[in-house]
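In response to reviewer comment 3 from the previous cycle, which asked for concrete evidence that the modeling workflow produces usable outputs, we include below a single protein chain processed end to end. The sequence was submitted unchanged, and the resulting structure tokens are shown without manual editing.
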Amino acid sequence: MELLGSPLPTLYTHPGSTPAKFLPPISTAPSSKNGFPSSPLPQSFNHPWVPRATNLTMGPSSKSSQGLTPSEALPPISSRAAPFTRYTPGDWHRSNLNNSKVSKTSRCNAELLTADTSRLIQDKYQETRKTQVKTTKKLGERVNDIKFWKSQLRQELDKMIGENNALTDVTKRLERALAKTEAPLQVTQECLLHREKRMGIDLVCDDVEKQLLVEADVIRSCQERMRRYLDQAEARLASNRMAQHEVERDLANKQVAHRIDDQCHQLRNTSDGISYYQGVERVDATISVPESWAKFTDKNILRSQSERVASAQLRDNIENLLVVTANEMRRQFSCVNVAFTHRIAEMAEAKRRIQDHLGKTLQEIFHLKRTIEAIRKAIRDKGRPLKVAQTRLDKRTRRPSMELCRDTAHLHLVNEVCEIEETLQSLQQRLGDAEDTLQRLVHAKLVLEHDLAVKANSLFIDQEKCMGMRKAFPSTVRLLGYV
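The workflow returned the following structure tokens.
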């Protein structure tokens, strides 16, 4: 084995053996891959004058070297009789011819490979260039699509912002109008409370009170509708802001995507900032396709449009509500004022009639008192004639005996006394009647005076207090919420 790993001398002698039987031809010589493990040969094998001993390597599978020791495989140098060579001239020529063919074949293959490679490079260059142009075109189309949807989103966003501002203004007007209804309601309630202070028969449920109750109901109804629409407006503003937020977020995403895609569209092979990103093509971070992408934005725009339509309808309803409620309250305010005017005129007329009756009653009481005094004087005046007649009769009863005669004088005296007594009785009866009448007149005077005070109190409440407060009723401009 040491011989196989060291240089061999140039000439060998070995009697009774031929090199042809010892070394196989080049074409049939076993490779060192099938024998011992290949290892680098010593540097001396590279010298041109040293024969190569590569084919002398005996593998374990070689039949000619099975069971032979190194000393038997190569006879000792002293026993070699003739020069020993590894190849014949034919092998040498065949080797040269074979090398020429292999070289020619390799050159042809290299030329074909070079031509194919050049054509492949040109084809791939054109293909890559065409693909890049197509990709750039697609990026440009994508940029245009994003720009289109950006413009649509921006237009919708501007419209939604305008709609939100308009709805906010109308909502503020509605809040102001609702606040302005508190004063009229308070005035109405105070009028009802003041009218509760009427006295006696004047505490009546008249047309004024009915109209005041209707006015309170109208104002409360208007307030209820305003509050309901105010709640709807607040909910609508919240919905509009949500839709606006979605549009703004979509627009912001579109702006970022537009900037990125526009940068990608502007990139060229000579651009700065390009680099290798290994494996980036295998990363799929997409969450949408063009159809779903466009549908998402279209859905946001359609939602915003529907919210705007509903908001505009609500604004129109609020405008109509403000006009209707203002007209209702103003109309009922006018009805209440007309009822107050009629009631005040009626109260003033009743007061005037009471004053007339009271004046006549006082005058009649004065006359009746004079009549009573006259009756009493007449009664007093009848006292002396009665005394005279009764004194005469009494004195004539003292006549003696037959002188007690029922003569004409006696009869006239009796008649005179009876007549005077009847007169006194009739005068007393008349005096009683006059005094009773006077009492009734005095009572009627008291009733008229009380009724006059009641009417004056009612007239003061309606004319001074109620109508004085109702002068401060809000104008139509305030009821519409402009101020």
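The radius of gyration is 71 Å. We consider this sufficient to address the reviewer's concern, and the full set will be provided in the supplementary archive.
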